[in-house]
## 1
Amino acid sequence: MYPGKIKALEMEPSEQKPEKEIPSIETSGHEEKLERLVDFLLLNKNLIIAVTVGVLAAGAGLFFYQQQHRTTEASAYRLLSAAESVADAGNWQLAIDGNDSIKGLRQIVKEYGSTPSGNRAKILIGDSFLALGKIDSSLSYYQEYAGKNPDLAASAIAGEATCHLLNQEFSEAAAAFEKASETAENQALKASYLSDAADTYRLNGSIDKAVDLYKQVIRQYPGFAATANAQESLLALAGKTGNVDL
């Protein structure tokens, strides 16, 4: 034996140098999360692809709908402009029915009623029927208005009020004029419709209610033509009520 080997055998176990241990490799938390994520992606790749395709398809569908809506509105606007010119000239029946040269309001409402211009056509055809004395037809089209413009919505409600007024349905007319005033955003329109409501209550004999609304117009909407009319009406009632103080 080699001297070194003998010496090593003669050493007590406690004196022998322990072999170096190979340190264990610990996986960090980030690496574990990454591994789990990779496993998840591999296991669910088909589902992820399907969801991604669905989202892309929905986005494409929305884009197509918006483009189609713009195209439809553009067509409705062009047709309405032509019919509106005829109505402005006082050719009410032609505006309603149309001819070979223009599409009538009735057909525009039928084909494009869900568009902004189609909803405006409902008001215009209501005005046209009203000018022809066809109150029931006028009322039905005013009631069909479903647009989002508050001033146009108020105009449609005021149209309903006028129909009720012509039918001598004063309570319904006055309430509709008040609603039109509440609906409108334009201050001049709000004043005008509220003054109309006061006039209607006055026709119905509800003088106190009329006076209250005239005063409201004067207080809330100074400077408008409807306000001047309200002041004149209030002064005209002074002899009957003595209630003209603001």
## 2
Amino acid sequence: MREGYHSSGDGMKAAKWASAAIAGAMMMAAPSHAKILVFNYSARVDQSGQGAPVGTLIAGSFSYDNNLQPHASYPGTYGDVGAYQSPTIRLSANISGSKISGGGTATVFDSHTPYSVNTPADEDSLFIGDFTGPLIGISIYGPNENWLNNTNLPSAFPFTLTQGHFPDPRDGDGLMVPAGELFYNDLKGYGFNAVVLSVTSAAVPEPATWSLLIIGFGGIGAAMRRRMKHAGALAGA
């Protein structure tokens, strides 16, 4: 009886410790520090040189630290530009069973002055990419949408992307509706352009949170194994 009681006590201690670890993880996940924002996207190849065939579907993601500040800002006549450089800026694409990735650079354009009488001021855009090796980049355009706070990196994309190319009779830049494009060029002859079909937020725990959650669940598992072993010993007695 003494041995069984002690084993059960160990299980209770492990369970309490695991609960405390999970609670600590949740506290650490509070928005009191930097948070990595992750967005999933889907795309479809619409132009191809020596790359993936037209119509090939792509799934990928991009991410960045929501507390990043631009390393350079460029006030302009028609809009302001914020340029970012950080290892937390990442972009990846999964296509035909292969994964390509890059990042490190982002640019935000927040327009404020019409180009002409017939052209609205709001043709805001975000670009994320990598120009240090194979070229990869994604651009999201949100004209007539209030989604940028000056030249800060956006925390959400509160609009539905229109799938396709849309000639703009006003100024020819094709930015009449929210849209997106993805490009890739490995500088060896393989490359493609793709239209972005959707962008959605991906809520994921941060690394520290994952670690504590794993430890916590491991503790719960250990407690359950101890209790099952003790119950089996009693049944066989």
